[in-house]
Amino acid sequence: MERKPHLLVVDDDREIRDLLAGFLAKHGFRVMAAGDGKEMRKALADRRIDLVVLDLMLPGADGLALCRELRARSGLPVIMLTAMREEIDRIVGLEVGADDYLAKPFNPRELLARIKAVLRRTQGEGRRSENRPAGILRFAGWSLDPLGRRLTASDGREVELTGGEFDLLTAFAERPGHVLSREHLLDLTQGREATTFDRSIDSQVSRLRRKLELDPARPSLIKTVRSNGYVFTPTVERS
């Protein structure tokens, strides 16, 4: 199944959020919406996002501050929106790391064209769109390097994982103590929703348990939560 790019629209104007979300969804994107920085951070923690459409004027932290925050931890593409037309605002927006800049009012088709262009450019450069901070995740004697894509045991032995297993373990380790449904895990690891008979997450969990657990039949790291999904139980430290 081909993965649809997942966009996050951050704007405190509900009418604009709804208009853009509906328009972009009709043109093949999956879309989430947020009204401020707090909602933006939650969306980024819960979902794998490919690009953020970020309004400059927001309650609390403004778009420039949020763009700086994003740039400090990831290469996630950002297109900034503003009602201000002054050249200085465009320059400042680009200086803090925005990939593109669009002044309101604008034609939604122009935003669509810019989104497609930014995604082509950033993905073509191999730039990582995951919103992952750098650092090693350590838990129960294991060391997981999300950027280097390495898993190391306490004795220094590197454990080989498939791409899907690695993405799934990273999703767990970045959300310890949270019950994650199969649908949520599919979205985080593959950017798609589960179908009725999709049990690929269960298969990958079984394989991870065989590689991580002392007793895969009685798992202590990745526990099943009946009718809800899975939870990653160990304490995780980032260094």
What would you note in describing this structure?
- It is built from 8 helices and 13 strands.
- It is α/β, with parallel strands linked by helices and 239 residues long.
- A 5-stranded parallel sheet has the order 2-1-3-4-5, sandwiched between helices.
- Helix 4 (87-95) links the parallel strand 4 and strand 5 (100-103).
- Helix 6 (163-173) crosses helix 7 (182-190).
- The longest helix has 17 residues, at 108-124.
Mean model confidence by pLDDT: 85
Q: What is the strand tally?
A: 13
Order of helices and strands: EHEHEHEHEHEEEEHEHHEEE
Query: Main sheet: which strands, in order across?
Result: 2-1-3-4-5
What would the principal axes of the Cα set say about the shape? elongated
Alpha carbon gyration radius: 19 Å
Distance between the termini: 36 Å
Fraction in helix: 25-40%
Quaternary organization: single chain
Q: Which class do the helix and strand fractions yield?
A: alpha/beta
Low-confidence parts lasting 5 or more residues at pLDDT below 50?
125-130
Query: What is the beta-strand fraction?
Result: 15-25%
* Number of DSSP helical runs: 8
* Biggest β-sheet strands, sense, barrel: 5 strands, parallel
SSE layout and pairings?
Elements: E1 6-10, H1 14-26, E2 30-34, H2 37-46, E3 51-55, H3 63-73, E4 78-82, H4 87-95, E5 100-103, H5 108-124, E6 137-139, E7 142-145, E8 150-152, E9 158-159, H6 163-173, E10 179-180, H7 182-190, H8 200-212, E11 222-225, E12 229-232, E13 237-238
Parallel strand pairs: 1-2, 1-3, 3-4, 4-5
Antiparallel strand pairs: 6-7, 6-13, 7-8, 8-9, 10-12, 11-12
Helix pairs in contact: 6-7, 6-8
